């Protein structure tokens, strides 16, 4: 992380409860961990939309649903055509409809293709002098079905290192219930902090933060 990143922060205050964390340093990679239907993607999109509201760039890698579905959800928060928003669609769809900045990769198992497309996005962002950039990755979980853990770890190490070296913010989703505990622990090592999301029996959603605070926070209700 560069010396500049010590002074440059990414605001999360309007997305996560301020009692948990209000901002993170540039170059941070966060893992949003929770079960299916816990709203992990919505949380990631809110973080990207918040950045777009202050003219930060954004990119979304989608491995669960086509880019068109993700854009529809993002459009509820922001107008994607007014933002600097890039997408990598890894489910083999034909892109995001009218949104032009969609790149397609054949499957979530094509890690080389994902890496190439992300490097191209990074190159274009640097050429456009976009210094503040948020990257959402929804989700790591499908990748485990296609590649072995060692190869996935190497891929994520390169991906997160690129985010760190550029002083960007990375937000990755994972469903820990879909993986062996060892796999989750191995992947978690690559991230600076973890945002846990759970669905309590009484309803609603709760969230806590680990890693980027001095100790794990308490569980707090998430709007």
Automatic annotation (TrEMBL):
It comes from the Archaea. Pfam families: DUF7504. InterPro entries: DUF7504, P-loop_NTPase. This is Uncharacterized protein.
